[in-house]
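Troubleshooting: if your tokenizer reports a length mismatch, compare your output against this known-good record of 314 residues.
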Amino acid sequence: MNKIFSKIKRQWRKIKYLDKTQLSYFVVTGFIGAFCLFTGGTYSYFTITKNLNAATITIAKLSYNLTSTTDGYSNGSISVPAGGTTVVDLTLESLNSIETKYVLNYNSASSDVKVYYSHNNRNNVQGIIGPTGSDVAIRVVIVNNGAGAANVNLTVSGGYIKNTLNPSNITEGYFESDITVRAILMDESMANSIIDQDIPAKDGEYVYFRTQCNENADATWNSESWTLDLGVEKQVACDVYFKKMGSDIETYYGLIKKDGTVSITSETPSAEQYTFARTECNTNATATWDETNRQLSLSNITDKTICTGYFNEK
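Known-good structure output:
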């Protein structure tokens, strides 16, 4: 220690006896060296911090709460009696600060147990959930065909939006009644859909928009009686969409994909990709497709009207 102190004193004496030019050179050089060290150290610090943050985001565990008011449910587990069927209403709550993906799965030691999603709700055992405070209502039906009681565990896995998650092992739907009609309530921009088992009032703020069933069904909306007429003799689940009107007359296009799924847009479909199929209006208005001008022409409008032109993917 004394040797180090002596060296420092000798160097200080040398600096004191340097001429002004040498002293100035020494001071400037020392300042530049110190600045470079500081800048390099600071840059390294932020770079390391950024990498650490990215690693933390990538590997951090996502958190959710899975709760239920169903009797017998406790911490994701429920017992189903022999030969019994149990309906479980779940609420999945996000505890994450960002939007994430989620998947609900089940496992049981008994091979006689099977878990279904309920057609009373949409099939939402997997999907996207919003940030902290967001929740998703999930309804599952557990069927135990065994001779003894069986325990079933319900678990949730999550991932970031760009992650790929294994699909849910809950793949089939359960009809709690032979015909299930779900009302889907949408706002003016067709966002923030709310699933309701009750059809909204005819004179309320929602107007009928369209119907989509899980199988081919002769489904017709009766605007006079305000009911859905179904000409089927089989189990079927139908979504009946209702929308708040942004204006008195609205037109949309329904794009029917080759796999049968339908997407709704306000943009005119491409003639190279789609061919005209049919039109539908929520009132007695008439909509015809003008192929030359590629637009819907409406007539006989007496009330707030939504008309949709449907097109098949080529």
